[in-house]
Amino acid sequence: MINKPQEYVAQSYDPRAKDYVSSQVHAFGPDLEQIKALLSTHSSASLLDLGCGGGHVSYCAAPLVKEVVACDISQTMLDAVLQTAKEKSLNNIITQRAQAEQLPFENHQFDWVISRFSSHHWHNLAQGICEIKRVLKPNGTAIIIDTIAPLDKTADSFLQTIELLRDHSHVRNYNMAEYTQIFSIYELTLNSITQRELNLEFHSWINRTNPSAHCIQAIIELQQIAPAHVKDILKFQDNHGFSLPTATFILNR
Amino acid sequence: MTEQSSSPPIDPRLLSVLVCPLTKGPLIYDKEKSELISCNAALAYPIKEGIPVMLVDEARHLTDEEVNKYK
């Protein structure tokens, strides 16, 4: 029996590591292009890829900076990242297993901390953000990218339920106000927010987590019975795909 | 030879950046036991196949006697 929250997330992701390395949704995107542009003049920088998952931030960043530490709670995911880094001859990527809320790094260690599609798995968002600030150098930059929950409470409930049915290790999608409030509490200066739309194709989205047939059926039923305004907000489609807003927050210490 | 002592050596780049996730204090590398020791937290973090597991819940609790050996 798994009692510890971080083990629950790790064990959920261990069998699916390779799916996340090859996932097209995760491997490409304008947010990764934005990261590359920002890092293009920082060849001596140290970078932490927090909640690295399939390692896509690390692969983008490694040719541009001095050193990348790819950090995740799942050892299997880290093994897949290290293997892929070797195949890509990215020898400046090192991996470290740790949880976002309790990082094993010194104060002021990194010039950049980037976390992409990870914070919705953290069990304590505030503590994770506090740790990011702690490990950032005084003039360091943090980039937090994640899906954003709707402000409408009904749509939010539908989204969280669908996410949980699809992935039992899902914790919470936060809304824009929740993120900005936490950044403000920990005195991280918000320099910019870039909002984008993430289109989720149903079959590849479902196949990455492989939920039971009951859960898949429940997701489809929820989409069908949702009130019109929820269908509109989450852009449910006839093929069960849907869209989520994402935000790229650029923050300075 | 025990299973632990046959663990490959830790990447020296990692050793230079890691601290105890609980106290944020320094760590001592015990090569023989394949552990990273935090005297302040009285914890030993295991190194599995060259990879330090920096999770408080997976660390071994040290007795006072063990901690004193590292001081």
Structural class of chain B: alpha+beta
- The H-and-E topology of chain A, N to C, reads as HHHHEHEHEEHEHHEHHHE
Q: DSSP strand (E) fraction of chain A? A: 15-25%
Number of strands of chain A: 7
Overall 3D form of chain A: globular
Please describe what this structure looks like.
The complex is a heterodimer of chains A (253) and B (71). Chain A has a single domain (4-150, 169-199, 244-252), classed as 3-Layer(aba) Sandwich (Rossmann fold). Chain A is built from twelve helices and seven strands. Chain A is globular. In chain A, helix 8 (153-166) runs antiparallel to helix 11 (213-225) and helix 8 packs across helix 12 (228-234). With 253 residues, chain A is of the alpha/beta class. The longest helix of chain A is centred in the middle third of the chain and has 14 residues, at 153-166. Chain A has a seven-stranded mixed sheet with strand order 3-2-1-4-5-7-6. In chain B, strand 2 (35-38) and strand 3 (43-48) form a beta hairpin. The N and C termini of chain B lie far apart (26 Å). The longest helix of chain B has 7 residues, at 64-70. In chain B, strands 1, 2, 3, 4 and 5 form a five-stranded antiparallel sheet that branches. Chain B has 71 residues and is an alpha+beta fold. Chain B has helices spanning 12-15, 64-70, and strands spanning 28-30, 35-38, 43-48, 51-52, 60-61. Chain B is built from two helices and five strands. Chains A and B meet through strand 3 of A and strand 4 of B. Chain A: Residues 48-144 form the Methyltransferase type domain.
SSE inventory with pairings:
The complex is a heterodimer of chains A (253) and B (71).
Chain A: H1 5-13, H2 17-22, H3 24-27, H4 30-39, E1 46-50, H5 56-61, E2 67-72, H6 75-87, E3 93-97, E4 110-116, H7 125-135, E5 136-147, H8 153-166, H9 176-185, E6 189-200, H10 202-207, H11 213-225, H12 228-234, E7 242-252
Parallel strand pairs in A: 1-2, 1-4, 2-3, 4-5
Antiparallel strand pairs in A: 5-7, 6-7
Chain B: H1 12-15, E1 28-30, E2 35-38, E3 43-48, E4 51-52, E5 60-61, H2 64-70
Antiparallel strand pairs in B: 1-2, 2-3, 3-4, 3-5
